[in-house]
# Entry
Amino acid sequence: MSTHTDAPDGRTSVVVITHNRRAELLRTLELMRRLPERPPLIVTDNASTDGTAEAVRRAFPDVRLLCPGRNLGAVGRNLAVRHVRTPYVAFCDDDTWWEPGSLRRAADLLDPRPRLAAVTARIVVEPAGTEDPVVPELRGSPLSGPDWLPGPALGSFLAAATVLRTDAFRSAGGFHPGLWLGGEEELLATDLQRDGWWLSYAEDLTVHHQASVLRDGTERRITGLRNTLWFTWLRRPLLPALRRTAELMLTVPRDMPSLRAFARAAGGLPWVLRSRAPVPPALEERLAALERARHDSTARRYVG
# Structure
């Protein structure tokens, strides 16, 4: 474990994706630049039209800025990871930031555990300083795991609060381009587990989140529900997929956003069914356990 807590730590790079949130991104980059770890920072600007790229170049010339020219969604992280030269990569949204010392501690947890792909941090909501409603779910994960895990075993992760092993991320193919953005972590997490990797919650890591005022809550719910359906048909066996689809049809709000989500999901069925690769029974048991645990979740209402 590291002992020089004020010294730079070269084990982890930070990747941020952004779209039309210039002020929030600049705040996050300033906070990340102050971290004692001094991590390399890589930003993918997903075709912002508010002067984001120019502002980053001017204020943070040391940040590697990638401008693909179109909105890649979560795949913007894949693009950034191509430029990562450290063993670990921490993802960060433009409205989240890591607490000083957490990146060092995450690397300390990953170093001696070669089959641990990712550690997910406790999330604190700002400006109130309260825990995010999803944290109790992480802390109380129903999944079992080996004794060497640093905390509860997880079946998925939150990209804005997770440090991943770079090689594991690359070997699993990163975030799937078909999902674009919204619950995209579940598919990657499942593929990592199928490849024999473990995911864990780590209580002593902290990420701060001050939700953007520019967030489109309705579109977030639509894409979240669509991607939940797509994930279900990409990876769940037939009977669980049918059961989960029926449950969602009965439990999501009966409104226009839900109708649009199901319509978009149906429109993507051809590519989803072509790409379908159901998980083996042992992994399906873990997915089913997570589904049961999330049934009454207050943190996931947008997906039913």
About this structure: The two ends are 42 Å apart (CA to CA). The beta strands are 12-18, 41-45, 64-66, 88-93, 96-98, 116-125, 130-131, 162-165, 198-209. Residues 300-304 have pLDDT under 50 and may be disordered.
